[in-house]
Every structure is written in C-alpha cells, then in structure tokens.
Specification:
This protein is an alpha/beta fold and 454 residues long. Helices cover 35% and strands 23% of the residues. The chain folds into three domains: 184 residues, FAD/NAD(P)-binding domain, CATH 3.50.50.60; 137 residues, 3-Layer(bba) Sandwich (FAD/NAD(P)-binding domain); 68 residues, BFD-like [2Fe-2S]-binding domain (Arc Repressor Mutant, subunit A, Orthogonal Bundle). The strands form seven sheets. Strands 3-2-1-7-20 form a five-stranded parallel beta sheet, with helices on one face. A five-stranded parallel beta sheet has the order 9-16-10-11-12. Strands 4-5-6-23 form a four-stranded mixed beta sheet. Bound molecules: flavin-adenine dinucleotide.
C-alpha cells in the first residue's frame, strides 16, 4: 500500500521534532514554513552573514537552539523541505501555498499543523503609533537583525516574555526605560508553588527579574490604564499604579499581554474548537495523540494551546510517533509514556503561568471610545460599542458583519480576542458566549501571485 502523503506546517520546535521522527521512520513528508530558515519563534535564526554567537543570541537556551538547528539542517536534504512558503488556505485535503510570488497546492492524507503563536495585543490608547511593537516583534528585531526598536524603550504588558525581552534588550546594551507589568506582585507570589513544577524555568525568570532590578531598571507591577503618548511618534508611556498617574518618556514601546495560538489553519481544516478559560481563547480539540476532530489532522505545539518550546518539542515528537504508528511502524510505548509524563508536568507549570500573568480585564485597559480597535479597518472602540447597542449584537461574527472588525488584512489575528472581550463586557455575557471569528483564507497577508504552478 502506498504511504500516506504527510505534510507538516511549521518548522519550529514542534514541526521539526515531528518531521524528525517521521523521517527516522522513513516516511516521506513535506515540511513547509513561511520563514526562510527553520527554528520557529524562540529559536529564530539570523541571516547567514550575521556572526553573533549562539550564547549572545539565545542566552540560556543556546544549546537547545543549536540542537534544533542541527536537526533541521540534517533533515533538509532528506525530506521535501519548503522554506519561505506560506500556507494560506486548507481546503478539501489540500493546502494552498504561496512562495516567491507563485501559488501552489499540496495534497495531504495526514496533516500536522505546528503553526505556533503570536503576541496578544490589546487596544490601549496610542497602540497604533509608529514606534510601538509587539514584544515578539521587538525581540525579532534584536534576535534576527541585531538591532533595537528605539533608543529608550518601555516594555509593557504581562507574561514571561515581558521580562525576558527587557532583559535581552538591556543585556545587549539598549536603554530600557521601564518594565510595566499589569500582573500584581501578589498574583505572581500566589502562583509560585505551581511555577516550581519547572524549577529551572522559574529560576531563569527570577534571574531576569533580579538582573533588571540590580541595574535599577524600574519594574512596576500591578499597573493599569496604560496609554502610549505621542502624535507622529512615541513620546512617553503613561499608566496608573496604586491610584497614582505616572509617565515615562521613551521613543519606542514593546507591548504584549501573553501569547495567543495561531489556529486559523486548524479552523479552515474543519477542526472542532472549544473554549479554554485559562487562556481566554478558543483552541482546536485534540486527543492524547494530538489528533484533532478531523481524522488525520494533528495539532502540535503552541498552535494548539500555549505550552512553551519544551512542550512544543515533546508534542512534535509525540505526534510524529502517533503518525508513524498510524502508518504501520512499531509503536514505541516506553518513549510515548515518557513524553506523556513530561507533557503532564509542563502542563502544570503552564497552568501556573496563566495564573501568575492573567490577561488583564477590559476595565483596566483605559479603553477609550477614540482608541482604534481594529487597525486594518480603522474601527474605533466607540464605533464598536455603538454597533453593539444599535443592532443588539451578542456574537462576534455578527459584530464583524456589521462593523468590519476582523475583516481586514490580519483577519482578526490582532483584534479578534480584544473585540470579543469588549463585546462580552458590553453585553454582560461570559467570554465563551460571544463565540469567535471564523477563519477565512488567506490566513495572513500575501502578495498577489503572478504565476500558478500546475
Ligand atoms: C514572537 C515570539 C517570540 C517568542 N520568544 C520566546 C523566547 O524568547 N523564549 C521563550 O521561551 N519562548 C518564546 N516564545 C514562545 C515560543 O516561541 C514557543 O513556545 C515555541 O516556539 C513554540 O514552538 P512551536 O513549534 O509550537 O511554534 P513556533 O516556534 O512559533 O513555530 C511555528 C512555525 O510555523 C510557521 N508558520 C506559522 N503559520 C504558518 C503558515 N500559515 N504557513 C507556513 N508557515 C507557518 C512559522 O513561520 C514558525 O516557524 C515566543 C513566541 C513568539 C510568538
């Protein structure tokens, strides 16, 4: 019997480990990634000409980065690896792709979606000003281009990435004006016991915090009402702490309120989703093998729920083993049991992270009617509120139809979760009740292709 056509989307920790297992079992596969080099977000690679050493670029994670890069380099000659290729649609067991201006189509019997995550952005005043970056964007500038996003940068939001990126900037010699965390210190202290489930990661987080404090970089916790001040460019960040209004001059901001899973392809593949209260988002359902509700479609890594890079590698391997067994290869029960134990431990740590760095509720955002909610379509918070009131809207896709929120180039990847939070608040419903924006192709902005492959 012919081997099934296997496609893995995403060459980050999850996708690379899945591909590695499949290749080891001599299963032919296609590995697709929109990035020019494998590694994913955390282990993003710099252009060839850049010589910054691994330790400088990846810090404590240098060995893991090197191991993953070695793995994809070894794989590249053995599998059909297609970098710089965006998957923009899933339809009828085919993927639609675009690469270097050419569209293409890849048929699959088994699909592994390892599409990762992106920063969660909230519509705070001034967030669309030039000079405001996501935390991830600010980190990418540093990691892959070796440059800072400004001369004096404020990092604002919440989550482990907030402290990590501030540390990486300061360590690289950039001027960090302040770190503003919406999560109060007491909230984090309460989560400490759970965070100890991964003592090494906890120690790293505490180290970043202490390193910043030792250099007298202001770290403010429990801040609310963050707003970015400026007209043509960023001039300052204002915020409130303990009922006191404060302001810090700066010329750039890195902002992020945790991560959100990139689930659009799973949606287009027809996977069932369910609401995940801790992360306040809808996620594709999966069984212990990582298989979604659609037979043969697997979801791995952060794209199926934020778990971190170590969990992503384990999920990739776990799914690789499940797919290999599906293709008739002998299952490795001992390794599967070990992976499952590792994933269970990391899941406990993740739950504590969610408790330590909760998504701040809308009443703390300083949301103003004039603030842009949907950047692509230039819809302000006040316009959304008026539509909700005038049309008695209670559901996200109706909100989209009436206002165009989430209908622009980003397809709601930026504004969708925030719009849902506001709709839930304004209609007095639980977040799960307002639903989610349905995925639409193209899932990401793409060039207008000039050639179509046969
Ligand atoms: C910007 C950013 C920076 C981060 N930095 C850190 C950090 O410094 N330290 C840390 O511990 N964690 C960090 N994280 C979290 C960490 O990256 C993840 O936990 C980990 O990388 C998850 O691995 P993954 O394989 O699931 O996804 P990723 O590493 O995100 O890999 C997903 C891959 O899928 C590709 N892809 C996505 N959609 C498509 C598509 N439609 N078509 C083709 N390819 C696609 C992407 O190009 C990417 O290479 C960061 C996350 C983000 C979003």
């Amino acid at each position: 019997m012919a081997e099934p056509r296997i496609v893995v989307v995403g060459a980050g920790p999850a996708g690379i480990r899945a591909a590695e297992v499949l290749a080891t079992h001599r299963l032919p596969l296609v590995l697709v990634d929109e990035a020019p080099k494998g590694g994913g977000q955390i282990y993003r690679r710099a252009p060839d000409a850049f010589r910054r050493p691994y330790a400088a670029r990846y810090g404590f994670e240098a060995d893991k980065a090197q191991a993953l890069h070695d793995a994809i380099d070894r794989l590249a000659g053995r599998i059909d690896y297609r970098p710089s290729t965006l998957v923009w649609n899933v339809f009828d067991r085919h993927l639609d792709t675009v690469s270097d201006g050419r569209t293409g189509r890849i048929a699959f019997d088994v699909l592994v979606l390892a599409t990762g995550a992106m920063d969660r952005v909230l519509p705070i005043p001034g967030w669309t000003l030039p000079g405001v970056y996501t935390l991830g964007g600010a980190q990418i500038a540093l990691k892959s281009q070796g440059c800072a996003v400004g001369k004096r940068v404020v990092f604002a939001g919440t989550g482990p990435l907030l402290y990590l990126v501030a540390y990486q900037y300061a360590k690289a010699g950039a001027s960090v004006a302040a770190v503003l965390d919406t999560s109060p210190a007491a909230t984090k202290r309460r989560a400490l016991a759970g965070l100890a489930a991964s003592s090494g990661t906890l120690a790293k987080g505490l180290y970043y915090w202490a390193w910043l404090a030792a250099r007298r970089i202001a770290v403010e916790e429990g801040v609310t009402d963050i707003g970015i001040v400026g007209d043509e460019a960023v001039r300052a960040v204002r915020y409130r702490r303990d009922a006191t209004e404060k302001s810090i001059p700066c010329d750039a901001v890195g902002m992020g309120f945790g991560l959100k899973s990139e689930t659009q392809l799973a949606d287009l593949a027809g996977c069932e989703f369910s609401f995940d209260p801790p992360s306040r988002q809808w996620l594709p359902e999966r069984n212990a093998d990582g298989e979604s509700s659609v037979p043969g479609v697997y979801v791995a890594g952060d794209g199926a729920g934020i778990g971190g890079a170590d969990a992503a590698e384990l999920w990739g391997e776990r799914i690789g083993l499940a797919v290999a067994a599906r293709c008739g290869r002998a299952p490795d029960a001992a390794r599967i049991a070990a992976i499952d134990r590792g994933l269970a431990s990391l899941a406990r740590f993740r739950a504590a992270i969610d408790r330590a760095f909760p998504v701040p509720p809308p009443e703390t955002w300083s949301d103003r009617d004039a603030t842009i909610l949907c950047r692509c379509e230039s819809i302000r918070i006040g316009e959304a509120k008026a539509a909700v009131r005038d049309f008695a809207l209670v559901e996200m896709n109706r909100l989209k139809a009436v206002t165009r929120i989430g209908m622009g180039r980003c397809q709601g990847r930026m504004c969708g979760l925030a719009a849902a939070e506001l709709l839930a608040r304004d209609t007095g419903q639980p977040l799960a009740a307002v639903g989610r924006l349905r995925g639409q192709p193209p899932v990401k902005p793409m060039p207008i292709p000039w050639t179509t492959e046969a």
